[in-house]
Automatic annotation (TrEMBL):
Its cofactor is K(+). One of its GO terms (molecular function) is thymidine phosphorylase activity. This is Pyrimidine-nucleoside phosphorylase. It comes from Paenibacillus albilobatus. Residues 345-418 form the Pyrimidine nucleoside phosphorylase C-terminal domain. The gene is pyn.
Length: 432
């Protein structure tokens, strides 16, 4: 087989066979096929697209390019949740204990975050003593016994995707539904769960700016998952404004605790229920999505979800007292209000820009090497559709530096007040 023939085949709109796709990904991973040929192929895929079969084959070829996680020692159906990335997205912190409270195994392998705020691990580490450096055996044991554990990322997962994603980034070939869906799904499948629930975000703060594109991506990922034997469902959700009120690590832990108590922000709660019911259904703990949702609401009402969160913290060395006393979480030195400059209704809160403001405070990493400050971040006091009076606080800045003019200006530039506006739709649909 010659790579040049395969590039020409795709360029002319042909369909690559399973063997051809395996040849390309194996050759590329080993360094036998050069970047320039793979970038030409990526561009051909960008224009000519791939069939569902080709996408599934590409996904599995990337899965097999490196290590895969074996979760077979963990009993039950393992369901993973993945978000395509948002600002102030506290859902994982809520969903992990919520679903585990229904005896569904949550075996989470997580990384550190880059961008607006930290990843799930960073957030959890704002709880004193909590750590994810546990042995594999202990991880398996914890999940079997307590249904929940988080471990830091290990192993060399999907090296082909790492290489290809970096190449696409500099060759104008990121925005292909075929390439994005296989990239994301390869990572989820290598991580070893039996079923996958996807939260595909749309809006200013998201990768997919329009609902149409988000739906197309959701359909592509769901069919890849189902085609390779991993039951997959998706929710398409709004990311035009940040989710919930909190953006920042310990602030989001507090927000997750509130939500597990049934006292969280409405949008965060609604999204957690929408994703959670798919997880419960895919884990075969309920016969319908409606029944699944009722079960989730019940463990919030009766306190089992909150109890599970405490148990989870204790198991991994953390101080569970933070659940009843969130003031024990890291606190920022300065709380600075951002008063509205006029009367009106909040019409826009540009999610990604507000996320960047939180990063400037130190809540997120600008580069992999940056240190993050777990205490800092932003609390939104208003969301889109809320009335506001001149002088009323739009946002509370939690900072560890006195001068926050840069952050304040960025917030003013990205929160628009108008005569009237309505709260945006939160959930645009589900794909099953
Ligand atoms: N995120 C990924 O992991 N891969 C893509 O191709 C795009 C976004
Ligand atoms: Ca939030």
């Amino acid at each position: 087989m010659r790579m040049v023939d395969l590039i020409e085949k795709k360029r002319d709109g042909g369909e690559l066979t399973t063997e051809e796709i395996n040849f390309i990904i194996e050759g590329y991973t080993k360094g036998e096929i050069p970047d320039y040929q793979v970038s030409a192929l990526a561009m051909a895929i960008f224009f000519k697209d791939m069939t569902q079969r080709e996408r599934a084959d590409l996904t599995m070829a990337m899965v097999h390019s490196g290590d895969t996680i074996d979760l077979s020692e963990i009993e039950g159906i393992k369901v993973d949740k993945h978000s395509t990335g948002g600002v102030g997205d506290t859902t994982t912190l809520v969903l992990a204990p919520l679903v585990a409270a229904l005896d569904i195994p949550v075996a989470k392998m997580s990384g550190r975050g880059l961008g607006h705020t930290g990843g799930t691990i960073d957030k959890l580490e704002s709880i004193e003593g909590f750590h994810v450096e546990i042995e594999r055996e202990q991880f398996v044991e914890l999940v079997n016994k307590h249904k929940i554990a988080v471990i830091g990322q290990t192993g060399n997962l999907t090296p082909a995707d790492k290489k290809l994603y970096a190449l696409r980034d500099v060759t104008g070939t990121v925005d292909s539904i075929s390439l994005i869906s296989s990239s994301i799904m390869s990572k989820k499948i290598a991580a070893g769960s039996d079923a996958i629930v996807l939260d595909v975000k749309t809006g200013a703060g998201a990768f997919m700016k329009t609902v149409e594109d988000a739906k197309e991506l959701a359909h592509a990922m769901v069919s890849i998952g189902n085609n390779v034997g991993r039951k997959t469902m998706a929710v398409i959700s709004d990311m035009s404004q940040p989710l919930g009120f909190a953006i920042g690590n310990s602030l989001e832990v507090k927000e997750a605790i509130d939500t597990l108590k049934g006292q969280g922000p409405k949008d965060l709660e609604e999204l957690c229920l929408a994703l959670g019911r798919q997880m419960v259904y895919l884990a075969k703990k309920a016969d319908s999505l409606e029944e699944a949702e009722e079960m989730l609401k019940e463990v919030i009402r009766n306190g089992k979800a909150l109890e599970k969160f405490k148990e989870f913290i204790r198991n991994q060395g953390g101080n569970p007292d933070v659940v009843d006393h969130p003031e024990k979480l890291p606190q920022a030195k300065y709380l600075i209000e951002v008063p509205a400059k006029e009367d009106g209704v909040v019409a826009e809160i540009v999610a990604d820009e507000i996320g960047t403001a939180a990063m400037w405070l130190g809540a997120g990493r600008a580069t992999k090497e940056s240190e993050i400050d777990l205490a800092v971040g932003l609390m939104l006091n208003k969301k889109i559709g809320d009335r506001v009076k001149k002088g009323e606080s739009l946002v509370t800045i939690h900072a560890n530096r006195e001068n926050v003019d840069d952050v304040m200006n960025k917030i003013y530039e990205n929160i628009r007040i108008s005569d009237h506006a309505e709260a945006p739709v939160l959930i645009y649909g589900t794909v099953t």
